[in-house]
Amino acid sequence: MVASSQPQIRTAISASYAELSETLRIAADYIAENQVEIATRSLRSVASASGVSPASYTRLARALGFSDYEALREQARFELSKREQDSFQDKARRLRSDVDQPLLPRQVAACIDNIQGLVADIDPATLETVVDRLAVSRKIVLIGALASAGFTDYFAYLAKWFDDRWLVAGRNGTTLGSTLAALGAEDTVLIISKHPYAHRSVRAAKLASGCGAKVVVLTDSRAFPGLQYADFHFIQRTESPHFFSSYAATLVLIETITGMLVARAGSEADARIQEVDKYNRLLDEFENV
Length: 289
Prior knowledge:
By secondary structure, the protein is an alpha/beta fold. About 60% of the residues lie in helices and about 10% in strands. The protein has helices spanning about 10-15, 20-35, 35-40, 45-50, 55-65, 70-95, 105-120, 125-135, 150-160, 175-180, 200-210, 250-265, 265-280, and strands at about 140-145, 165-170, 190-195, 215-220, 230-235. Strand 3 (about 190-195), helix 11 and strand 4 form a beta-alpha-beta unit. The longest helix has 29 residues, at about 70-95.
């Protein structure tokens, strides 16, 4: 990870706090205690939540040694990302030190906890709203990069059995831009992104939102920078004794969403599945056993 040349936010606040006005101190206190919000929400949202004007945050950023508020926000993102990266390195070291402890039962236990956490973490009403939106969208575009790319492929594999409106952007010879350029208000973009977050996923969320499409994000933390462009988001737990995040809970959520869509589609889904199955057999896609 490239080191940031900007000052550490909390260090900068401590060094400058005595010289700040009362209003700027309120803003500084909010930043110190809500770094995730600074990293993921717009300046207008932060100002509204804290009761301090956007102009005051701009003045504070400069007083702390940043060129502007956006530079301060980028530093907040960097510090959050760095903390996550350090935890991965710690986990890798623990894996080497715990060679006498079988990994399988520990990994299974962590995945079960992550999956069970979905019940507490996912708001049923929001899930219903998202599924309703997917059911009526003109087009559903899936975006995922790095480790998340394979899970968008799996999502599309399940969905395209019963619905031909789904596509994975930026794969199989197409560019991400060629897909996003055709988006409109009737479309939905579904982004899967886990730490370390891919720049293209954040940029895609911004562009999709700018096109008027609804943006749904599946991620592991409120630190994902693309959340500021999301209309809906679901955070899944990814704890694991492994050095990298677990996608077990994300897979369950993907399967839940597609299952809910099949239930809504009714006989139309049945007809589509039958047709897909017929052509799979004609093309000899599956091994007969």
